[in-house]
């Protein structure tokens, strides 16, 4: 008894550190692996509709990202932090934004660009300015434009009314043939809504299922890991602007098809909300999301590409430092005369 | 039907309360210790000069140290005995401070104090009793109470708020005082209101203490004639007990940065302080004892103990049956704002509200990582500051530039560090910033 009583003091085992002494049981690892878990269901669906090669591409992407992270951290003399799950997320997201039919070596190149150049050379987790997975994709778009814009696969479990465009992405059809052609291809608008919502449509590996992405995103919001500001303002802006300007006449666009196609859901919940590259205060986040929406619609309607989410997010990444310095939390009753 | 409960608006967190260890335990008198160590710097303010010499005999309640000039409060002998030594004692903040050690006479017991009626006393007399009793704010920094109760005449104080929020996890001192001594606290409130020359007082209590709300409401109903005293139930949220947040929660008024409560017409007093004022005025009893919560899984028995000022922690530990083998950290104060200590020679001071013996599963031992820019800390900060930037600047060796992020408005509540998933020692960074930056 006597001995036990003071043992901790005698052996100097007591920890003395700064307050607070209790912290909420949320760690970077926990957040990252939760995001990984939320990204798995869309992949499973993708394997069913596009076949096992999407799983192989995703695995190659993830493994390349993790390896690149480990090697570049070693080379740069930093602690190796591949256990934190952030490279796994980048690997998943990189695979999710490339077409299912690309050659297997493509994600390897994208991974080096994403992790080594975009993330580690800029200082590692939290210090990068641009979203690594999206830079990876932009790099592949520039270097392998044909594969990246044509390696689509026709999904299983869906009946097309007209087969000519069955493997083209919905946004490609809308851009070049108009929404009527899209309805013709799929038979009816309601059939489009249903299948796009579930995720049975041509597209990039992980972007097709609005439902599963929404589910994952809502879970992250429920856990408090991400806030609703960015997804809501981004999706809202896309819907609104498409409705106004996306049709033949003003106010005739179809907002629902716009947000159910392309990378809107994936981008809104899993890419635009990336901590490092998005503003960290709500006012800035609302503007940032709206900016992404605006640029996305601009590219879709006026630009050369059918889809603009990727570039829109990257462009707004560049505005993040400015948004953060313009929109800060309001102080609790600042002293008079001091502008803060 | 229920109106939404009042609370402060910006930021705040919900740490686990962990009050169940002690909230139902009645306050217990610890037997008088053989020896006490009275620190000459108990709190905020000037240090006291000893008024006794080695071997002098002192009686419980004798003033043994006083401030010569400047802000401060006197200290008293908390037991009857002989001055054994005038040396130094460990202190969580100041490392070590001068102290007077008194060896208690073996047969000396607690002194009896006579009850008096206070209603004929003038404001000046009341105030001088508070001063003579050496009362300081018992919840936090220990600001001398007689000074706080004499606001400058240009400050138009119209409201007294008694802080019964006790928002720090584990601590149950104020809770128990309210449950067990409600009538005395209400009498204390009336005394304070009389000193201030005002009528209106509120007691803010978080709703996780329903029995305290009930007892206090009852006492107020029975004994507040001539005054306008109300009990205000508050939503549970940390740091509700911080003055600025409490004032906002109760009155909606906001104390400006670098301002004091009386700038918005409010004076805040802690529950323990209010009771001490009652004892000082009605019994002429100085601050010779203090109720402290001893809690955490690292001690054999948890308790709400009434101990003499200067009682050493090791005597308390022995009285409660010792610590457990898995004890990892000892914290003086609450887990959010308290200080970790490395020795049990530490004596209880007037502002000690609790001592926590924490095991590994109760504390956080993660190593910290770089900021991932999640923004959680911005959301949590009740002052609307940017702790993330302060941390990054301090790490980059640019601590001088942190005033722009509000480093001087920070009161170190720890909300930011509590939520940070990278476990960054933000409060530490902030303290460095405060040392190096220049006030704007
Ligand atoms: S410790 Fe300071 S910066 Fe951190 S939350 Fe509290 S007031 Fe804000
Ligand atoms: S909570 Fe921590 S990791 Fe997140 S922004 Fe604040 S300091 Fe950075």
How is this structure best described in words?
The complex is a heterodimer of chains A (about 350) and B (about 450). Chain A is mainly α. Chain A has 16 helices and no strands. Chain A is globular. Chain A has 2 domains: about 120 residues, no CATH class; about 120 residues, no CATH class. Chain B has about 450 residues and is of the alpha/beta class. Chain B contains 11 helices and 17 strands. In chain B, the strands form 4 sheets. Chain B has a 6-stranded mixed sheet with strand order 1-14-13-17-15-16, covered by helices on one side. The model of chain B has no long low-confidence stretch (mean pLDDT about 90). At the A-B interface, helix 1 and helix 2 of A face strand 15, strand 16, helix 10 and helix 11 of B. One iron/sulfur cluster (SF4) binds next to helix 8 and helix 9 of chain B.
Shape of chain B: globular
Relative helix content of chain B: 25-40%
Name the pair of protein chains with the most residues at their interface, and give those residue counts: A-B, 48 and 73 residues
Number of DSSP E strands of chain A: 0
CATH class of the domain at 2-19 and 117-283 in chain B: Alpha Beta
The rounded distance between the terminal residues' Cα atoms of chain B is 47 Å
| Separation of the first and last Cα atoms of chain A | 58 Å
Largest sheet of chain A: none
> Ions, cofactors, ligands: which are bound?
iron/sulfur cluster
Spans of chain A of at least 5 consecutive residues whose pLDDT stays below 50 are 1-7
Report the major sheet of chain B.
6 strands, mixed
Low-confidence spans of chain B: none
CATH level-3 fold name of the domain at 2-19 and 117-283 in chain B: Rossmann fold
Instruction: Tell how many strands the DSSP assignment of chain B holds.
Output: 17
């Amino acid at each position: 008894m006597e001995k036990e009583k003071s043992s901790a003091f005698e052996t100097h085992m007591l920890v003395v550190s700064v307050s607070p002494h209790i912290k909420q049981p949320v760690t970077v690892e926990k957040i990252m692996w939760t995001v990984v878990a939320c990204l798995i269901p869309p992949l499973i669906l993708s394997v069913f509709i596009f076949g096992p090669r999407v799983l192989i591409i995703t695995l190659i992407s993830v493994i390349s990202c993790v390896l690149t992270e480990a090697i570049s951290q070693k080379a740069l003399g930093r602690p190796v932090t591949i256990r934190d799950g952030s490279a796994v997320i980048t690997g998943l997201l990189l695979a999710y934004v490339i077409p299912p039919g690309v050659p297997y070596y493509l994600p390897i190149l994208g991974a080096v660009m994403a992790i080594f150049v975009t993330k580690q050379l800029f200082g590692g987790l939290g210090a990068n300015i641009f979203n690594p997975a999206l830079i990876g994709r932009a790099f592949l778009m520039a270097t392998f434009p044909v594969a990246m814009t044509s390696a689509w696969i026709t999904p299983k479990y869906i009946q097309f009314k007209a087969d000519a465009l069955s493997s083209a992405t919905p946004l490609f059809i809308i851009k070049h043939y108009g929404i009527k052609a899209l309805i013709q291809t799929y038979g009816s608008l309601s059939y489009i809504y249903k299948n796009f919502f579930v995720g049975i449509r041509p597209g990039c590996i992980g972007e097709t299922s609005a439902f599963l992405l929404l589910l994952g995103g809502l879970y992250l919001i429920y856990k408090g890991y991400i806030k609703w500001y960015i997804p809501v303002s981004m999706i809202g802006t896309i819907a609104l602007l498409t409705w106004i300007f996306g049709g033949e006449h003003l106010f005739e666009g179809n907002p629902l098809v716009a947000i159910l196609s392309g990378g809107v859901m994936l981008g809104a919940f899993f890419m635009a909300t990336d901590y490092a590259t998005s503003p960290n205060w709500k006012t800035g986040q609302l503007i940032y999301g709206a900016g992404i929406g605006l640029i996305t619609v601009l590219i879709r309607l006026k630009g050369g590409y059918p889809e603009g989410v990727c570039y829109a997010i990257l462009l707004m990444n560049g505005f993040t430092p400015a948004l953060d310095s313009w929109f800060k939390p309001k102080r609790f009753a600042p002293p008079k005369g001091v502008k803060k | 039907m229920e109106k939404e409960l009042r609370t402060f608006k910006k930021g705040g967190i919900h740490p686990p309360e962990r009050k169940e260890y002690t909230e139902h335990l009645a306050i217990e008198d610890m037997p008088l210790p053989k020896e006490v160590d009275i620190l000459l710097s108990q709190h905020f303010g000037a240090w006291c000069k000893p008024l006794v010499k080695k071997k002098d005999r002192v009686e419980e309640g004798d003033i043994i140290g006083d401030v010569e000039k400047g802000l401060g409060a006197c200290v008293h002998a908390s037991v009857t005995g002989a001055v054994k030594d005038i040396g130094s004692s460990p202190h969580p903040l100041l490392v070590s401070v001068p102290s007077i050690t008194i060896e208690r006479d073996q047969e000396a017991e607690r002194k009896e104090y006579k009850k008096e009626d206070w209603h004929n006393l003038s404001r000046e007399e009341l105030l001088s009793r508070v001063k003579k009793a050496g009362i300081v704010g018992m919840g936090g920094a220990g600001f001398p109470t007689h000074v706080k109760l004499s606001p400058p005449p240009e400050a138009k104080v119209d409201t007294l708020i008694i802080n019964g929020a006790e928002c720090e996890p584990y601590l149950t001192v104020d809770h128990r005082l309210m449950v067990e001594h409600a009538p005395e606290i209400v009498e204390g409130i009336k005394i304070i209101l009389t000193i201030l020359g005002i009528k209106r007082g509120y007691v803010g209590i978080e709703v996780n203490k329903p029995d305290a709300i009930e007892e206090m409401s009852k006492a107020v109903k029975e004994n507040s004639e001539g005054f306008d005293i109300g009990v205000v139930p508050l939503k549970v949220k940390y740091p509700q007990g911080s003055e600025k947040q409490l004032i906002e929660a109760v009155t909606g008024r906001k104390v400006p940065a670098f301002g004091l409560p009386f700038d918005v017409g409010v004076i805040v007093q802690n529950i323990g302080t209010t009771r001490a004022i009652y004892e000082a005025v009605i019994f002429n009893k100085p601050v010779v004892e203090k109720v402290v919560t001893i809690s955490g899984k690292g001690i054999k028995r948890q308790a709400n103990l009434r101990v003499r000022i200067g009682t050493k922690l090791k005597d308390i530990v022995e009285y409660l049956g010792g610590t457990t083998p898995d004890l990892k950290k000892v914290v003086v104060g609450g887990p959010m704002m308290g200080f970790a200590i490395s020795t049990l020679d530490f004596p209880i001071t007037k502002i000690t509200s609790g001592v926590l013996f924490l095991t590994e599963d109760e504390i956080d031992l993660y190593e910290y990582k770089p900021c991932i820019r999640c923004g959680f800390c911005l959301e949590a900060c009740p002052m609307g500051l940017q702790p993330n930037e302060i941390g990054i600047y301090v790490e980059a060796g640019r601590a001088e530039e942190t005033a722009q992020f509000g480093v001087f408005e920070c009161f170190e509540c720890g909300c930011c560090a509590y939520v940070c998933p990278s476990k960054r020692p933000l409060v530490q960074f902030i303290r460095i910033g405060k040392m190096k930056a220049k006030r704007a």
